[in-house]
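Morning run. Coffee first, then this:
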Amino acid sequence: MAEISSLLAAGRYASAVGLARNRSAADHFDPALIGLPRRLGEALFAAGLWREAEPWLAEAAALEPWDTGLAQRHRRSRLPDWAEPEIRLDDGRTLVRHPPQEGAAYSYTIDVVGTCNLRCPTCPVGNSPARPRGFMAVDLFERIIAKIRAESPDPNPRLTLYNWGEPLLHPDLPRLIGIAHAAGLKVQLSTNLNIRHGLEAVIAANPDELKISLSGASQEFYGRTHRRGDLALVLANMRELRRLIDAHGATTRVWIGHHLYRSSRHQLPEVAALAHELGFAHHPIEAFFMPLERLATYLDGDDAADAHGIIPDLPLNPRERARLLAEQQAPDSDCELRFAQTVINHDGSVALCCSVYDQANMLGIGFLDHPHAEIQRRRYAHDFCRQCTARHMHYAGRRLMDVPSR
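And here it is:
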């Protein structure tokens, strides 16, 4: 057991699993192996190796049925019932689905606002040519929700009312939240919170989850990574948000998505303390460069793709990240953003996925005009998916391996 623990601590996951299997096969009832399934399962789960963790977590959960946290991790390590375990492509290849790590539910991402009030250098609204703007019409939203309810592969899908746009700019956002709730769907929002009106009506509508995008605790850092953003306004709105939730008895879960850059990482404790003070969750997230079209250009050697010079401030250069992913990704893994998500633009058209922006990577069809199976067929046939996979930009499951020491 100690040897296996040492291997896990060193990131030698494949060696640890191999040794554990050999020991268990030799003597499954060896007292020295007590606790091994839980120790191994939780280590693999924490490393993102959910498929490999599942049988060990299943055994551990059976031994400790009273541990609800353990049972929850076991459920998340399993492929959801709504997802087929694999898909056969037109070229004859078979791809395996790994348990989706963004959430167990199928996700419908509806960009109800086709623009944003900020111009962040890591976001296409700030680093790519402008595309048509607008607000999703309420009647269009109603029809989209009805279609989701009628054909979703998951009876309880997740609904996110944002992608590249700022949803709190929508003048009818509280009404959209009400429509979704009436259809039995939970609503997740993400906001930069650089708004001056409408917050109370949104909270009164009681969205299920609200993420606040934040990248620093001083205007110097925040203004560079959230261009056009006013940190003082955001902080005032965060306190107002706390007051409104309490006043309305809202059950909205609020969390701060704290984007970490090299130059502002030292401010992490300050942001964490603020989140604790306000009763919001705090989730640090290493900043990364989007959209995939610009990222692909940069990975191909064009430094000019980083027009604002933000990449040197990222915790990990995208080229190094791609190199690591080339080692770590399971080569037969399907992309989570393809099998577990549908993305709908403000005009009702369908995007290839949530990470693309250029018109060439929209499917050229309306969500209301085609059934789910046809939308998926077009996505799997799209050439940009092949380009994305070749550059290791896709959201693939990891393969079991010993992580090399660096």
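The longest strand covers residues 253-260. Good start to the day.
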